[in-house]
Design a protein that fits this description.
The chain is an all-beta fold and 65 residues long. It has one domain. 0% of the residues lie in helices and 57% in strands. Strands 3-4-5 form a three-stranded antiparallel sheet, with no helix packed on it. A hairpin with a 3-residue loop joins strand 4 and strand 5. This is CPXCG motif-containing cysteine-rich protein.
Amino acid sequence: MNALESISEHCPYCGEAIELLLDSSAGDDEYVEDCEVCCRPMTIALSLDEELGLTVRVYAENEAF
């Protein structure tokens, strides 16, 4: 898998489709990025698993996982 991967997700606030450019070379990661449509902060969690590959979760800052 390439270290950089572009995926489409939906903002947990406004529901609009957004493009995320992900870097999976560092393994598991979690960071905050503003929605390019509504500008609200969303948390993006990356999980890299040998069997499942790259898993991405996008959620609002007040949601707990």
